[in-house]
Amino acid sequence: MIYFLRENTLFIRGNFKGASTGVHGGIGNVSTIFNHTVPKSFSHTDPHRYMKSVVAEQGFSTEDFFGLLTAVGMKTLCVFSYEFITVFITAGVSNPNPNGPGTINIIIHSREGLSDGALLEMVITATEAKAQALHDMGYDFTGTTTDAVVAVYEGKQIVHEYAGTLTEAGKRVYECVRFGVPEALRRHEGIIETDKESFFVLSTIGGNHWVEWKMDECPYYPCHFEGQRCDFCYCPFYPCKDIELGDWIDSSTGKKVWSCQRCRLVHYPEVVDYLKRKPEAPLSELKALAVKK
């Protein structure tokens, strides 16, 4: 999976199988997922055709994508990483719609394979977590009239047959969404001011707890070398499994996890600038650039 923002759109690229409740959704194989900001007054007689234009403008295939629309700005996007699960959330609960409040869009990515049943159950799990989060915040509704969920995975091996709240996959999704919806709402409503997306990771050090990573507040800078760039502290290639860059280590839970501790690749200024211009550049291309420089 590679994800990046271009103006008012989040793009997620890869080879996915997934389920979407959005416009022209369903279950299928897709190479692009996006969440696109539209004006609050947006109205279109053929929203699927409009969505095709969004991916076509980027040169992506218009035949295999899942797309979501929202009036929420992408600067309030929140990304949550919990081991093999990554969740992207934008959230708003008020707009001119007289039939109900705003839009909460949730995109779930699993690095581990899911059965078709687990994909669909993951949508239910995310919806339950969203409803609980709204209840905990004091709202008297369990969702909005235009909410949507996308759940996808990469890989051919089916690891998870189920994704309910007590399963390994489901409990991670539930925690990401339950914690994540309030964070996204606070940013959209201006309670927390931000001018760019926010990134959170579930840390197991000292007990499970969420940590928001902020580049300008990182206590470990410089963790690799003086003058390093930290735009991609949470690497878009993780876990690359390239033994020239990282290692498998034992985590605090006893599981093997991929460690990037000795990797400097995405911290070289020239690599960072290149990756921002070409977000889909392969790892081999970046390694060649680093060697050349």
How is this structure best described in words?
The chain has 293 residues and is of the alpha/beta class. The chain has two domains: 2-202, L-amino peptidase D-ALA esterase/amidase (4-Layer Sandwich); 229-292, no CATH class. 24% of the residues lie in helices and 29% in strands. It has five helices and 14 strands. The chain has helices spanning 47-56, 116-136, 168-188, 269-277, 283-292, and strands at 2-6, 9-20, 26-37, 65-70, 78-82, 85-91, 104-110, 113-114, 148-153, 158-160, 198-203, 209-213, 247-250, 256-259. The model has no long low-confidence stretch (mean pLDDT 91).
Number of domains: 2
CATH architecture of the largest domain: 4-Layer Sandwich
Strand content: 25-35%
> What's the helical proportion of residues?
10-25%
